[in-house]
Every structure is written in C-alpha cells, then in structure tokens.
Amino acid sequence: MNEALLLILAALLTAGWILQVRALERRIRRLEQQAASLSQRFFALSLWSEVLQQRLDGGAAPEPARLAAAEELPPPRPEVEAEASPVAVPVAIPALRQPEAPAAPRARGASGGPWKRIERLLVENWCGLLGVLVVVAGVTFLTINAGLELGPRERFLLTLLAGGGMALPSVLWGRRPRWRDLTDAMRSGGGALVLFACAAAGGLPQLGLQWIEEPAPALALLAAGVAANLGLAAIARTAAIASLHVAVSLVPLAIGPQGGPALAIASAIALVGSELPLRHRWPRHRLVVSWLFGAFQVVWFLRNGPALAASPALAAGAVLAAVLVFGPGLLRLHRPGAAPARPQAVPVALLLSPWAGLGLALLLYPPAAAVRAGALAAAAGVALLLGRGARQRGPRWMALGDGLVGQTLVLAALLSLAPLIADGPLLAGVVLLESLLFLAIAVREGSGPLVRVGWWVSAAAALVLALSGLGAALLRGDPMQQLQTGAVLTVGAGLTVGMQVLLQRRAVPLPLPPLPGWLAGGLVAVGTALVVPEDWRSPLSLVVMGAFLVAARRWRPPGLLGAMTAAIALAHGAGWLTLLIQAPWPPLPLLARLLPLAVLALLLTACAGGGRRQGLGLALLGVDAGLGVLWLLEPISPLLPGAAWLLLSAGALAGSRWLRGGAVRVALGLSLAYLAAFAAAFLVVIGPSQELVTLGVLQVRGRLLIELLAITVGLHGWFFRAGPELARLPSWRAVQPCFLEGSLLGVVVLLQGEISAPWRAVAWTLLALLLVCPALARCFAIRLQVYGVIVYWLAVATLLVSLSVGLPSFPPATGAAQTAGLVAIALQTAFVLACRRWLDLERLPDPGGWPPLAWVGGRVARRRNLWLGHPLFIAVAVVLASGYDRALLTLLWTAEAFAVYLLGVVLREPQFRRVALVGLGACLLRLLAIDMAQADLGLRGLVFVGVGLLLLALNALVHRFRSRFG
Prior knowledge:
The protein has 39 helices and two strands. It is mainly α.
C-alpha cells in the first residue's frame, strides 16, 4: 500500500511541477509585454517633455516626423494596460520635472526588490500546487483511516467522493482566470484519485479498496476510470495536463495484473490519448504519449516474459499493438506538409520515437529468431520506402531519418540471426555486406549524411569482421571451418575495395579516405596468413595478396597499397615463425611454403614503384633467400649455407646497379647482412670444421675453399663499381674501404688455419713481402704497405713464439723449426732490404683507412730502420740461440753484433751502432761469466780467438771509416 501511495504522490508532484513551469512561462511573457509597453510610454513622455521645455524657453519645436513617430505607438492589450497602469503613472510624473529624472529606483524600491517578487510567486503559484498535493495526500490518509472501520465498497465510494470533491472547484470557479490554474490542478488530482480507486476496486488488493471479484465488472470499472481521465485530457488547456492524464491512465495497468487485456487497454489509451484534445493536437503531447507507451511496453515485457515465450499469439498481439500505436503517428508525420522544411527538435523526436518503440517491440516480442529477423527486415523496408517518398516530396531531413532507421533495423535483423548463424565471422560478413549495400544506395541517392553514416558503419563492420577472424584464428577449429572463415574475410576485403573504388570514381568526399584500404588489408592478412590451415597459407597468400596488390597498382585506391605491404610483411613473419618452430624441413615441403612467399615479395618489389615499399619487398626477398639456403643446404653439409651467403652477398651488391632510391640502401644492407651471417657461421661451424672435400685425386679441407671464396667476395666488393645512387650513400663510402681489410683478414685467417705452426712465420713474411710490393700498392691502396709492416711484425712474433722465446733456457729446436727459422730469417732480411726501395715514405703517414694505420705509417716513415731492423736483430739472435751449440753462442752473437755495427756504419744509423755495442758488451760478459767455465779447453780457446778477431776487425773498421761517425 505504501508503494502505491508513493507512486500516486510522485505522479501528482510531477504534474504539479509541469503545471507550475507552464504558469511561470506565461507570467514571464506577460511581464515582458508590460515592460515593452512601459518603455514605449516613457519614450513618448520624454519627447513631449522636451517639447514643453523648449516652448517654455522660447526655442523652436522639434521635427514633426519625430513627434509623429512617438505618437504612432501600438495600443497595448487590455490586460497588459490594466496591469501596467499602476506603474505608468509614477514614471510619467517625474519625467515632466526638469532636474529629478532618476525616479526609476524609487519605483523598484517601492515594489520591494527581488525578494518581494519571489514572495509573490510562491504565494500565488506554489501555495496552490502544494495545497493540492497536501489535500490529495490528506484524502488518501483519511481514506486509509476510514478503511480500518469501513468495508471495501464504502472505502471505494469515499474515494470517489473525495475525487469528485476535488473536481468540484473547477466546475464552480474554473472560468475565472485567477483561479483557473488552481482549479485545473485540483481537477486533475481528482481524476487521478478516481482512476486509482477504480483500478483498486477490481485488481489492487494491496490498497484495501477491492470489492469486485469478477474480471468483467472490474475491467468495466477500470475502463470507466480511464475514460474519465481521457475525458479530462480532452478538455485540458495545456499539453502537460493532457499528457499527465494519459500517463496516469497507464500507471494502474503497469502495476496491476498483466496479460493481453492490460496491453490492449494500454494500446487503446495510447492510441486515443495521442489524439486528445481534438481542438489542439499538440506535437509535444504526442511525443510524450509515445514515450509513455514505450516505457509501458518494457515493463509489460519484463512482467510477461514467460507467457510470451509460451504463447506465440500473445507475442503477435503485442507486436500488433505496437504497430497500431506507433504506426498512425509515423504515417501522419509523412503526410505532405505535416513536417517542417527544416529539422526541429520535436518533429525529429516524433519521427525517431515511434520507430524506436516499434523496433523495440519487434526485437523483444517474437520468440523465434527467424520471425524476429523477418519482422525487423519488413519494418526496415517500410522505413526505406517512406524515406524514398520523403526524398521525392520533402523534407530532406525526414528522408535522412528514415534511411538511418532503415539501416538500424536491418542491422538489428541481421544480429537477431545470431542463434541461427553460429559462425561469428560469417555473421559479421553478412553485416558488412548489408552496410556496403546501404552505402551504395546512399551514394546513388546522393545523400551526403547517409553516405557518411554508411561509410562509418561499413568501417565498423569491417573492423568487427577482422576481429572475429582473429578470434577464429586463436580457436583453431576444423580445417574446413578455417577455410570458410578465410573465404569470408577475403570476400569482405574484396567488397570493401570495390566500394572504395566506386566512391573514388564518383569523387564522393569522405573522411579518412585510406581507412577502407587499410581495413581490406587487415582482412586479407588475417584471412590468408592467420586463419586458414598452415599448409594453405603460403599459396593463398600469394594468390589473394598478389591479386589485391595488382588491384592497388591498377586502380590506386587510397591506403590499399600500404595495407597490402603490411599484410605481405605479416604473412612473411608468420611463415618464418612457423618454419623456424617446425625445422628441419624436407626440401619439397620447404619449397612449397617458401617459394610463394618469395614470389610475393618479388611481386611487391615490382608493384611498389620505388620508395620504401620496394625496399621492404627486397628485404623480404633477401630474408627468404637467406633462410631458404640455410634450411635447404644445412642437411647436405653444414659448410654450404655460409658459402651460399657469400654468393648472395656478392649478388645483392651487384644487383644494386639496377635499383633506385631506397632500394639501393636495402640491397647494401642485405649484402652486409649476408656477410655478417657468414661471419657468425664461420666462427661457429666453418672454422672448427675438419671436413674434407674431394677434388679429383686431391682432398682438401672444405674450410680452405670457403676461405678462398670469402677472399674473392671481399675483392669483388673492393673493385665493385658502384652506381651513382650507391656511390652517394654515406654508408657505402664508409663500408667500401673495409672490403680490402676483409680480404686481407681472410688471407690471415687462411694462413693461420691452413699452415702448420713451424712454417707460419715463413708464410707471414712472404705475405708481408707481397703487401709492400709497389705494384700491389698501386693496384689497391698505399695502406697495404702499412699492413705489410704489421704482418712483418706478426711474422717476427710468430717466429719468437715458435722458438720458445721467454723461457728461462732455450730448449733445442726440432729440425723443421730450425729450417723454418732460417728461411724466415732470410725472408725477413729480404723484407727489410726490399722496404728500403719499396716503401713510399711520403704517402705512408697518410695511408687512409683506420686512424691507427696513420699512427703506424707515420712512425715507420720517420724511423724506418729502427722499426724494421730491431725486430730482425731479435729474431736472428733467437734463431742462433735455438739452432746451435751453446758453447758457440757467444761467438755467434758477437758475429751478429759485428754485422749490425757494420750495417749501422753503412746505413749511417747511430741506433744500430749503439745496439751493436750493447750486444758486444753483453757478449763479453757472457764470455767471462759463462764461457770461462767450459770444460773443453779447445772449444773455449776457439771462442776466445773468434771473439777477439771480431773485436779487432771492428776496431779496424772504425779507424777506416771514421768519417761516417758523426
């Protein structure tokens, strides 16, 4: 009971608030009219006061035109004049006085200011409204109190008497303007009280007024209460009161017993109430009635859900009721001349609200998905037909609204088929097809707003299709289902591109023109590279993406070429990942997966037309080739992929001559990437390998052949004649000199790995002689001579290591080591002598290449004998120490010191003479400390005689060539 009372009070409060707002609006308009009349009167009085003042002063009168304009004022309305006359008198009197013009503030002060006006509004309006509400509440409480002592029938009669009493003032004083608003409010409250009494008498036992048990009399009594309220709506003076009576008529049906009769009565109330009152036909009232019936539909559906599922007839009746209530309003609005030429808030709401209610009914009531979809499709067809008629006859905004409603209903119909179409991508594809058809119709009709709406709806549908495809790719269902999903995505992409080309040909202005192209690319990428089974991905990617790539090149729709480039990159990435996870692969399956990707990358390179896309195609093709040779050749021999990468590096560099733009940089990057892959393979696989290769009757290490191939590739890069675009690249100018170092590094690695340890010093010395050759320096670069000096030092270091320099005592060397040491000493001596004629001392300080080379070259150019001779002297001393008897070591070292001194005299190199003298001193110390202790007197005497003769010869040499010592 308390809930019902609260509901009644809420309805009455809402009605009173609406009535008060309307009354305030009328009062404000009346005050504005009074203010305008007063301003006109004040202007006229001011003009006449000027005339009187000028006459009193003896001046000329003003222009007659100005006075005539002041006299021709429109006469005020009687009610305005009556209400404005008390204010006009005090304004006119001070205007005739000369110094006292500011009388207006006294008038405002006399009226009491804003608080007085607020007080008047509260007393005149809200007191009456609150009084009505309080009276209704008091009557309700009295009825409840009386109900404790009276029977249900007496309570019902008492409630009717109270309702009639509240309506009685309207009959007695309703014609008086001063009491009209108050009496109308009391009459509306009485009507509501009578209706609830009639409803409670037969169907609301909670209120304590039920005394009728039979359905038919209760229904008749309820109909009488509803008829009374509809009658009050028919004589209502404002749209708010009429709408409130219709709302009050629907409330008992919403809270009372449900079923078909309640919906039928509510439909009749809405249908009749929207046409009341007959003499006014307020559009706002019809709009409110449609909203009220829509809300009632929702409440009725929630309370009758099980009955609707079990009774198709009840659902059909509910749909029919919605059609009967909302249909006439739509047809009335589409009559010629019924709608304004330009869109306004109320007419637009009158168009959309019935469609919303009808669509809601068709979506909620039919229990079967097929029936629901058919009903929504039929409603969409009606909307499109009405929109077409509105487009022909006008106004245009109504045609736009009908088109949008038709599109919405069609989408709702398609989505309602979800229980029948369990495949999400297929349903999304159907929605995309419908959206594109709507867009095509909008383009054909030439409606810009509909085109934009269709554009965005189509884009959203394509995005939903792509997301549903991703979901299907993650689920990994049946292969046939995957193929079907891929086909749906591909067809959706084709339709999107076709619509984009159509819009492009018709030059339809659209926001974000590349968006459909990118959406189509996303659909193709998901459909062919992720959704379909793995065995189908590469061939389908080649066929589908190749076709779209050719279409993008042929018709050039915005965004499609970039989207297909991204899709091809995604297809390659997915294919590489699959191949890497499932490696190793047999040759045929590997080629079946990798060749289509390579052809697709080649097609992208051909269709890109230069720029970054062509570079991306080349990069993808290069990676395909590199991975292909790895997975194809590694099962045959682990050495073959490295050799293949060397050949691919040379081929990529040679192919840069026929490329343009960014593709040249990509080709250079691929060449360097292949070289880096070879370097990694050499360190991990090729270098430690001892695999032999049979060449006729010879068996050589496969590593040797690959090292020779690497040297050849390095020389190819050094002598390569770059094209004009490659030559301009800073990266090429930085990398190209390194090919010489790379070739030299290959030679060093070959000698280190293929030459046995005793003979490596000989090999290094021969290489040093070759590097300082002037012909070779002219053919390559002067820095080869610097590298020759460095290799010479490396040869000396290798010789010292091989002869065990640095041990406390020199162990006896083997015969091979002695022979190799003598040969190395001879070659190193030849190197030092050759450097005197071959080294270009002028260019050696600036050899180019790395900065350390300039440091080495500068020092060698300034002190050539020092940097070349001293290592040789040390090597000779070590060879003598390791290859001969220690008893003769002092004699041999003295002979070496004598030779060094002689060389210093010939070359006029003081440093050599000093070194020789230091060596002679060391030999004398060894002679006294070690050779004196020898047991063999003959050998001791031989050593002493030899050392003495050498010293005498040295003394004679010094006296003979005294002029050379300076």
